[in-house]
Amino acid sequence: MPKTFHLVSLGCAKNTVDSDSMAQLLLQDGYRFTSAAESADVLIVNTCGFIRPAREESIAVLQELAANKRPGQLLIAAGCLTQRYGQEVARQVPGVDGILGTRRWMDIVQLVRQLREKTHPAPLYHLPEEARTVGLDEGNTLRANRFGGSAYLKIADGCRRPCAFCSIPLIKGTLVSRPLARILDEARQLEAEGVRELILIAQDTTDYGHDLGMKDGLADLLEALGEAAPQIQWIRVMYAYPGYVTDRLIRVMAERPQVLPYLDMPLQHAHPQTLRRMRRPANLDWVRRTLNKMRANIPQLAIRTTFIVGYPGETEEEFSALLDFVREIRFDRVGAFQFSFEPGTASEPLGDTVPAEAKQARWEQLMETQQAISLQINQEWVGKTLDVLVEGYDNGISIARSYRDAPEIDGLVFVEGQLPVGEIVPVRITGAMPYDLTAVPLEKKHA
Fold first, then answer.
1. With respect to CATH, is domain 385-441 assigned 2.40.50.140?
2. What's the mean pLDDT in 245-266?
3. How far apart are CA 378 and CA 393, in angstroms?
4. 172: which residues sit within 8 A by CB, 6+ positions away?
5. How far is CA 225 from CA 30, 198, 214, 215, in A?
6. Bridging pattern class, strands 98-100 and 124-126
7. Higher per-residue confidence, 119 vs 247
8. Cα–Cα distance measured from residue 225 to residue 402, given in angstroms and rounded to the nearest whole number
9. What value does the mean pLDDT take over residues 250-276?
10. 52: Cβ–Cβ under 8 A, 6 or more apart, which residues?
11. Counting Cβ atoms within 10 Å, is residue 181 exposed (0-12), middle (13-18) or buried (19+)?
């Protein structure tokens, strides 16, 4: 009877890709996945360690599995949390048998075999330091996570940016871009499997290829993907970095029909002094010029960004500047986070000076401001036609996303009737809410 594994993936889509890669390797080794943790031979938690709430969730999941672990079961902690806090995980979760670093996901089969072969009084670690900065030995593993008609495709890992608040370089190391030919092969494979939407992810997609000597790597990649996988209808770009959206990238987005008129560019703040304390690009004039240039060249461009409120030293004046900027630019989508103090980052000497109550109040005010803008923009779509990717069906309603909606973080389009899941179909928009739209199939007349 084949051995079984149960895998819990926490955190972002980039983590989910790593989880799927580990699952592929275990399946190739003869293991079978089970959704029942109690019956699995191997329990794996791919943890998130980006901010404190994510670390707490990861520890809680590990502790629950450890508390219910039966004799003979193995519990492995993998991912971001273990890369940076492996010893702390071992201390807080005594039932952990093995610890796997974020860039050593490809060692999962080797680690399981070693754990089965011998008894260890303490967790067995797979955290070689050199793995943080060298290329990855991926074998033939597909570095993608497919769901329905979409797939996340990881194009790079790690980050070389100096953002003061971010622990990613401490966890992932510097940028390591995946070879262009390998990404194209995987895109062809996903195309053959019927994928309609390819979502490019990395810590910083606009930095793709820098370590490979490419001058404008993301633009090169988008052009090559269009040639390699012409049947993939949507290619979506996530996690662009301010200052690295080049004129050529804008031109490629404008000229390539497959590349969606959607850009996710986290700006983090809109006051120069706050941005300087964050060690982020502080030239807001560049942001304005670039966004205006993109909107002038890319019809119906949807722009998503992310902001942090309550960063150390943020004054009422600085926060007001952020609100004014949001009102001025009128982003389609905005995500907001309250600053989370992270030991070991460059922002640690600044402390955590903004009271929790002020952070919460500012977060609410920012989201209320953007909610009104999002509603107004959504209302402009009523009566118009949109192509949507159908993700599911429930109780007479098809659940879909338009080009304006990245999975999990943006809105949905709720369409009357049953449409083919995994396909892109045209609909007519009939109603608008702050985040979501309602619609009917294009051929159906709405009363």
1. yes
2. 95
3. 22
4. 80, 83, 102, 103, 132, 157, 158, 159, 203
5. 33, 10, 16, 17
6. parallel
7. 247
8. 21
9. 96
10. 340, 341, 342
11. exposed
251's tokens: 């031109």
Q: Hey, what are 58's tokens?
A: 């990861």
| Tally of residues, the chain | 447
Q: Is the pLDDT assigned to residue 422 strictly greater than 90?
A: yes
Could you read off the pLDDT of 275-320 as tens digits, one per residue?
999 999 999 999 999 999 999 999 899 999 999 999 999 999 999 9
As a CATH number, domain 144-379 is 3.80.30.20
Distance between CA atoms of residues 350 and 322, nearest Å? 20
Side-chain half-sphere exposure of 131, counting CA atoms within 13 A: 17
- Phi, psi (deg, nearest 5) at residue 279: 60, 45
Return the structure tokens found at 35.
């959704």
Cα(351)–Cα(313) distance, rounded to whole angstroms?
A: 9
CA nearest neighbour of 43 among 63, 57, 24, 28: 63
100, exposed or middle or buried, with CB in 10 Å at 0-12, 13-18, 19+? buried
DSSP code of 134?
S
Is 432:402 a contact under the CB 8 Å cutoff?
no
For residue range 170-215, list pLDDT tens digits in order.
Answer: 888 899 999 999 999 999 999 999 999 999 999 999 999 999 999 9
pLDDT digits (tens, 9 = 90+) for 335-362: 999 999 988 899 999 999 999 999 999 9
Residue that is written with structure tokens 């982020």 in the block: 280
pTM of the predicted model as reported, rounded to 2 decimal places = 0.87
Is residue 228 classed as helix, strand or coil in its secondary structure? helix
Do 305 and 334 contact (CB within 8 A), yes or no?
yes
> Residue 380's closest CA among 329, 426, 416, 431?
431
Domain boundaries, the chain: 4-132, 144-379, 385-441
> What superfamily in CATH does domain 4-132 come from?
Methylthiotransferase, N-terminal domain (3.40.50.12160)
The sign of the torsion formed by the CA atoms of 240, 10, 48, 193 equals negative
